Amino acid sequence: MSLRDRLSISLKDAMRAKDATRLMTLRLINATIKDRDIDARAEGNDTGVSDDDLLAILSKMVKQRQESARAYEEGGRLELAEKELSEITIVEEFLPRQLSAAETEQAIADAIAESGANSIRDMGKVMGVLKSKYTGQLDFGKVGGVVKAQLS
């Protein structure tokens, strides 16, 4: 079952269950995807965005909500922070399982070996390999520092 189908089924289930938070979050996801589909069609891609692009969209949504929750907590707005955190759990249901620390280290080592990287200048090659294989499974903001440390 494709990611789009899973989202559609979940949206219908949320409507039936009258789960307002889940419904709002899923509608926001669908709106973002439709917006990207329109952009893709304008660029000549008639099929819309791919599943890899959908995973990138969902990862970005999680990251945005984490930043918002952190800002709300710092501002003493705990009810808004809790709302953002609940949205994160809903979005994460559609992302693949995140790699553990040991799996991340192994993935980085494999990517370094595969790309033949041996200096910090080759970091882009390593990140490219990681993004092609582990989209949605890694936080590339955190991984970048680890890759840089291993290549230094």
What does this structure look like?
By secondary structure, this protein is an all-alpha fold. The protein folds into two domains: 3-92, Hypothetical Protein Yqey, Chain: A, domain1 (Orthogonal Bundle); 101-151, Arc Repressor Mutant, subunit A (Orthogonal Bundle). 76% of the residues lie in helices and 0% in strands. It is built from seven helices and no strands. Helix 5 packs across helix 6 and helix 6 (123-134) crosses helix 7 (140-151). The longest helix is centred in the middle third of the chain and has 24 residues, at 51-74. The N and C termini lie far apart (42 Å). The model has no long low-confidence stretch (mean pLDDT 88).
CATH top level of the largest domain?
A: Mainly Alpha
Identify the overall geometry. Answer: globular
Summarize the biggest pleated sheet: none
SSE order, as H and E?
Answer: HHHHHHH
Distance between the termini: 42 Å
**Domains, number:** 2
Number of strands: 0
Instruction: Please tell me the CATH architecture of the largest domain by its name.
Output: Orthogonal Bundle
**Treating each run of at least 4 consecutive H or I residues as one helix, how many helices?**
7
CATH topology category name of the largest domain: Hypothetical Protein Yqey, Chain: A, domain1
User: Which class best fits the helix and strand makeup?
Assistant: mainly alpha
> What gyration radius follows from the Cα positions, in whole Å?
18 Å
CATH superfamily of the largest domain: Uncharacterised protein YqeY/AIM41, N-terminal domain
